Amino acid sequence: MSGHSKWATTKRAKAVVDAKRGAVFTKLANLISIAARKGGDPAMNFALAQAVERARSVNMPKDNIERAIKRGTGEDGGQAIEELVYEGFGPAQSQFVIRVVTDSRNRAAANIRHIFTKHGGALGAVLWNFEQKGVILIAEETWQGAKLPFDDFALESIDAGVDDIKHEDEGIIIYTKPEDLAKTKTWLETKKLATESADIEYVAKEKLNLSEEDRARVENFIEALEADEDVNDYFFNVE
Predict the structure, then answer these.
(1) Who's near 180: CB < 8 A, 6+ residues apart?
(2) Can you give the pTM of this predicted structure?
(3) Are 129 and 108 in contact (CB under 8 A)?
(4) Among the four 16, 35, 45, 56, which has the fewest Cβ within 10 Å?
(5) pLDDT (tens digit, 9 = 90+) per residue, 167-223?
(6) What's the rounded Cα separation, in Å, for the pair 196 and 77?
């Protein structure tokens, strides 16, 4: 769990095997449908463009993507999808914010509650320790290929409106205000820097250090979240 949690989820999505492909496609289709509520044209809807980009990165068929967009815009008359946020305490008092995209609020609530309880946690108020930020990831391979001096790039990015920037083993993490996410991603494109992901996330203000045993328990909890069909994303405060 070193570094940013999104590295792990991005890598898992891109390494999806055939046995899990259907479940991944279902999650991404729901994400696309939610984003498409604000407009079905990715060129005019940043959130939709990002969702479609994620779907393409795991080779989701074009027909699936188009159906998901029509579902979100209401063109197909299908069952409504909604986005929900749950918060609570995982193993060892770790704090989690879980983003759910579902066509069944009752099923999602029951499943999330069961996952927390099974792993020794409980739903509860933790959002006070999180703030929403735009978060952009640039893979280390992409960064190295750009051959840009980090210090110079960091200064230039701050001038461009970035709040913070970090260089981890897996790559570059850029933090922005939520409203500046699209603008910052466009600026990175002018630098020929492709992004691994760009999304509005819940970022913990205070981090928690755990023993190896407790970290293993948190990993098991995360695996249970990822296996749930309605869980779209999750954020936590473990260092």
Answers:
(1) 134, 161, 162
(2) 0.82
(3) no
(4) 56
(5) 988 899 999 999 999 899 999 988 889 888 888 999 999 999 999 999 999 999 998
(6) 33
* CATH 3.30.70.980 holds for 130-204: yes
Counted residue by residue, the chain has a size of: 239
CA distance 108 to 99: 11
Q: Report the alpha-carbon distance of residue 5 to residue 21 in Å, rounded.
A: 21
Contact partners, residue 174, CB within 8 Å, separation at least 6: 135, 136, 137, 138, 157, 162, 164, 165, 184, 188
Residue 175 token pair: 């933090």
pLDDT digits (tens, 9 = 90+) for 78-129: 667 888 999 999 999 999 999 998 888 999 999 999 999 999 999 999 999 9
45: tokens are 């809807």
CATH number at 5-73: 1.10.10.200
Which residue matches tokens 């600026």? 187
Spatial distance between the Cα atoms of 210 and 106, rounded to a whole number of angstroms: 33
CATH for the 82-129+205-236 domain, from 3.30.590.20, 3.20.20.210, 3.30.70.980, 1.40.20.10: 3.30.70.980
- Four-residue CA torsion sign, 112, 30, 48, 80: negative
CA 71 to chain centre: 21
Nearest to 234 by CA among 126, 158, 105: 126
Look up residue 163 and give its amino acid.
Answer: D
CA separation for the pair 226, 221 (Å, rounded): 9
